[in-house]
Design goal:
The chain folds into two domains: 80 residues; 63 residues, Winged helix-like DNA-binding domain superfamily/Winged helix DNA-binding domain (Arc Repressor Mutant, subunit A, Orthogonal Bundle). 66% of the residues lie in helices and 10% in strands. It is built from six helices and three strands; from the N terminus they run ααααβααββ. A three-stranded antiparallel sheet has the order 1-3-2. The longest helix has 24 residues.
Amino acid sequence: MKWIVYFVITAIVYTIILIKLKVKTQREKVREAYIFWNTLIFFLVFEFIFIESIFSQFLFHLLGAFLSFIYGISIYIYLKSIRKDVDTIFYQLLEQSHGKISILTFMQATELPANEAQDYLNKKLKKLRGNRHSTRGNIYYEFSGWENH
């Protein structure tokens, strides 16, 4: 009976963590610290359910720590697999800004370093017939043919 309660609570916590971190992943990079904190959360759930056997079945609690680590790793791997598709983000930004993108906005959205973001935007500039404008501290790309793609 306790295993059923454990798996139900773990599934609920897993879903909540995944949804929360997936939203956060859209705004920032996935960090390795997520593994530690998620493992700790799942281990606390395990200990909460099976606390009365902590001294009599120590190896059982090592299994709980191992399962918790596996849950934490799986969430991390899943979040890393949601690697942002640069083309999708590019066209979303184009649509939102009506054909005008700053390199800083593009870098933040895609998490690309400056040189890669600039190379990508320069290639798109040639493909979509656009112009490059510089202002104080920022570079803007204006694409006139973006609606055709």
